[in-house]
Amino acid sequence: MNALILALAIGFQEPKQTPEQIESALLSSLDNHFWDAKHQRWREMAGKDDQVFLWGYSVLLSTFAIGAKLDPATYKPRMEKAFDGLAKYWTTKAPGAYAVSPGQNPKNPDRYYDDNAWVGLAAIEAFDATHEKKYLEIAKKVMTYLRSGEDDKLGGGIYWHENKKESKNACVSAPAAMLALKLFLITHDEKLRDDGERWLAWTSKLADKDLLIMDNMNLDGKIDRAKWSYNSACYIEAACLRGFIVTRESPVTEIPPGIVRVIQMTDASTDRWLEPDQNLVNNPGMFAMHLFEAFRAVNQVMYQMRFPSKLELPDTGQYVASIFEKCRNDQGLLGEQWNRKPKPNEQLKLMYTAGLLRTCLVARRQP
Question: CATH number for the domain including 25?
Answer without folding.
Answer: 1.50.10.20
